[in-house]
Amino acid sequence: MRFLGDGRVIGACVLMALVWQVQAWRYGAQLEHQATGHAQALSQQSQAALRRQQAEQDKRLALEQQLSTSDKLHAQELSDAQRNQTALRDRLATADVRLSVLLDATDASGCAAVPASTATGSVVHAAPRARLDPAHAQRIIGITDDGDNALIALRACQAYVRAIVR
């Protein structure tokens, strides 16, 4: 009888070991399922982050292209203005063009006005004008050059700010 009692103890130990193993397998399966869920969640978060990063990179590239195009446009505009200013300076230097100013006809200072240039035998109906000294004309052209350059630079800055704000 004593032998049967030992068999029951051994059977109980085997049964407990088997229950323990089954619980370990179930726990391992739960951990594996949980790990798979975490891995999927991390994968989805990673993919979402990659999509956001790609969208931001696409925006940045579009902005860079827009700014590059705008920069080329403003550089061309500045180049054209400088070319026109140089041509006007050359024409002033060679006396092809002369700058003149309108005189105030109501001025009572007594200065005699220089008549506007007319062809021989024609009647002058234009307002009286005075021709400027070429050196003064060059200075005036220089001032307008600076103003033109400032306006072009201002438009470029405004376009840049508008592009960045969007």
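(ticket continues) Second input and output from the same batch:
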Amino acid sequence: MIQTYDDAIAWIHGRLRLGIKPGLARMEWMMNRLGHPQKKIKAVHVGGTNGKGSTVAYLRSIIQSSGKTTGTFTSPYFKTFNERIAINGKPVSDEDWLELTKRIEPLAAELEKLEIGGPTEFEVITAMMFLYFGEINPVDVVLVEVGLGGRFDSTNIIQPLCSVITSIGLDHVSILGSTYEKIAFEKAGIIKQNVPVVTNVKQEKANDVIQKTAAERSAPLFSYNRDFKAELLESEADGEHFIYRDNQVSIPVKMGMTGKHQVENASIAIFAASILSESLKMNITKETIISGIAAAYWPGRTDILSRTPFLMMDGAHNKEGIEALIDTINRKFPKQRVHFLFAAVGDKDLSKMIALLDKKAATISFATFDMPRAAAAEALVELSNHPSSRSVDALVWAEEALHSKSDDLYIMTGSLYFLSSISFEIKNLINTISKK
């Protein structure tokens, strides 16, 4: 029986045994039993291969700057599990989380006895989110991040005010398909009838799929570099300065997150905010945009933890993410040596990712982490052709990096679940060393 917050978290984690089960039947059953709380929220649905979390962070910050209360549903968490459901960046309380779990657990038990089977961990958390924002603690708008794909993702039972597809990449190919077009088809599943959609899909064939789906559903389609764009002015070690432009405004913006891809994500958020301004009765001004983007932060995405020595973590968990990371390094630090620590889940195309890192690395190390899907460090070493490749404990690697006297770059990358698992200990290590 679930009596405490720890009981609740243990029960939720126990749902991991069910793995990933795409489909909406279990969600629809639970929502029906709960009185359809998802229909009571005003939502923005954010999908895509890379950039979802950052785009949510920018959009949340802009909306907050306008004075509106904003709920978010994101993954993974970095400090506390509760972060996955938050209001204005503040995680749900332990007490509310316990109450939500108690409401969902009996429904899960009933589902276990039905042919469609019990809900997965993600489905349980999604149901809790809809219940929280729809009934327990309503907010002005909820930013809902897709878990996997789109068409059959458990979040895809909402009728949003706006849909966002940040990018298309070759990720989760065993589930979503092995081509950009197939993956685009799954991501396009979040496009709803007559609901505007904002995209930054670069591959021509994938973009064709998005355009076709939007046309079929009479969904107004707005694309980066066509309907809005950004001109990069200045790239600094800890941020970017750019001009955002659409057919209405031209705004100089400074941001703390770094990388060309982050400029694009911020631009998506700015345009989406302008779409939402009327339906949410928001006063979106140049000032709210500038202050919102400047204040935005999302852990694990080009996240600089130390500047002397330079230590950064970036959740580049697929080929496109690694390419964006290396592009950022080449633009900002073209002459500096780079030392990578990489860990990932085993169901990715690891050889392509590691080959890209091998090419850039002065040294490359591999670690693992506590997750059933995590790849063994030794298996990652086998995929590397770099002469320095080795397996190492993540904290040992970080301590070596933090005691370095060089101006080299030390970058932890790969799975966001890996970064979240070590983030707290790494920051404690940094504080300990800085006090000596």
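Agent notes: The first strand starts at residue 43 and ends at 47. Residues 76 and 417 are 6 Å apart (CA to CA). Closing as not reproducible unless the customer responds.
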